[in-house]
Amino acid sequence: MEIPGFQIERELSRSQCTRVYLASRLHPYRRVAIKVAHCADGNAANRLHRLRSHRALQPGFRHPHIVHLESAGAAGPSLYLVMEYLEGGTLDQNLVWGLGVPKLLAAVSGICDALDYTHGEELVHGRIRPANILFRSEAEAVLAELCPLETIAVDQAPLDARQCNFSSPEQEAGAPLDLRSDLFSLGAVLHHALTGEVLRGPGANLGRSGDLLALTPRLPAHLNSLQPILDQALATEPERRFQSGAAFKSALDAVCRNDSLKPFTVKTEAVTAQEIKRTDNAPGFVHREFLDGAEHRPSRRPSRRLWWAAGLGLVLAAGAFYAVQEPSRWMPTLLAWTGLAEDPALRSAWAEAQSLREDPNAKLPAIVAGYRQVLALDAGSEAALQAIAELSEQWRQGISASLERNDLESAAANLAEMEVAFPNDERLVDLERELINRQAANTLLGTTQALLRNQGLSQIPAATVAIQTYQEVLRLAPGHAGALAELAALAEHYASLAEQAAERGDVDAAIIYLERATTANDELPVLALVRERIQQATTALTTIEELLQRASVYRAEGLLVHPPGENAAQLYNRVLATAPDNVIALQGLDEITSRLLTDAARMFEDGNLNGVEALLDQASATGIDAGALDEIKANLDEKVQALSTINEKLLEAEALLGQGFITEPQDANAVSLLRDIQRLDPDNARAAELLEQAALRLAEVAQEAFDAGLHGEARHYLDLALTVQPDEAQWRVLRQSWQ
Question: What is the pTM of this model?
Fold first, then answer.
């Protein structure tokens, strides 16, 4: 899959109709998720307008608990959506790893806020399920799948059985849906998270009829405080449910405030024996007898003295028998049972496990299986439990060491073995994420090294891009040896160039080179010596003063970030490369940043988006604060998207007007499109002009119909013309004369 402007890294997930990829936006660099759907007719361009007109893709549609959709496009026969990439996984994945109930309730509360927002925007989600609830961070849940890409691409998306498990009764019956249907589905998701069960699946607690919700599922005793909330959320009749997300959230908050819930963890995967041992006495794990609501009374057993007497007699009898006869075949088993000898099967299993552990070619799953065979014969074997724990830690440390060495092939192979041997180990998630980031970092590293080989280290523009990319590599893989080495090489190269320039008295060039060296690695020891030599140069102080004076003149003349090399911002940065604490240069850059924000705001008001884009390009090359530039860039992206939408609608309206589709059909006519444009841009002159043309054409058709004796049709078309241009007095007079 190739999408212009993006580099596809790997596939994240797939369904029958769609694929989701992890990708990197190339300019500016940022990791995103891209969802792709192949169009049923192969003509993505015709369907792209429908996709871009979806409410979730319009400017201003944004909520902290909704996945941000950045843009939509077409590539060949496929449509695609670009959205923010979330590393926190889905609700289902977090439940597999284990999720604290307070965090679960906080996540559901956030989705309640999101649903209130979407329904305020007249959107019904209709596909609330665990896979569509993602985590931006450990405590921040977001709602995905608001824009139905697959439905637009193939006209009708196939039925997803997983969604049926969480759909409301009215959704199952094909009735109209509203907010209360989505809240029912959210209640079903909460029930699934707490119990591991689904409402419409094998074993669902729905009575004999699986079509309607006959019985509200019951929660275990330790979750009783949440039962009234579940009862209301999953009520069959919409009128009995929560009527807003705020009401649902308020009920959850009330339970959290009264401390009726103990701090425990919900987990959909089976809990391992080691987890039970670790948490047997910990808060949050409730023993079965208390869940059943009754104490287990001790059964009647013979007194301990009788048992001791019987056991002692059996041991003495066995000893006497062993003294007078040769041991029979069953004697070792008898002695093992009485504790006088070791179980031969257990001894054999232990020897086999130890042999596998000492075999350098043995795989981890086989070694662990050997020790688990020991535990199957002796569940309390401390030696086997310790060996398994040691293997887990040894393998994890080995994977971490491989990642540190950047030996990703070994790390991936060992991680695959560990996932088979310890599928419930939560630490594997972090190792897998680190492996993925390392792989992405290596890709960026290789691309940048190729760039420098082609351009050369001394080309400042190429070096600037390389430094930024190497720093991104270090963000993905902290301590990455390759990126650190490349940055050190760049720093040493430019430090050497700066030193040479200082020795020949070219302080300006020395300062420029020193700036690049400092950006690459400001802790390089040689930089202190280079700064000292520059400062010792006979013209250094004079040059800095001249730079400050020239920068002041450029500021007065408005040459803040342009032209390249001769603007105030670059001159101040040259001063700071030599004297990082120069107050005049620091204050000058702050003032330039403030003026740039003001100029950008004025250009936005004037609609001068080209000017804003040029301003951004100029400022990016001068070292202006990235936060301010990001703010301008975000506003520009929003305005450009709105302008693109308006231009597309204008072209479509002109085409429909030329074809005669003025007010019909209802969902695709020129007048409705032009009204949409005026809502986005009330002062759009072209839209007003086209509306006037549409009204004149309708009035002409009305007159032609009247002249032809079609008086009813004539009045109809003149009424349509008046709906478009209601202020035309002569048309109103003419309409009255046609009564």
Answer: 0.42
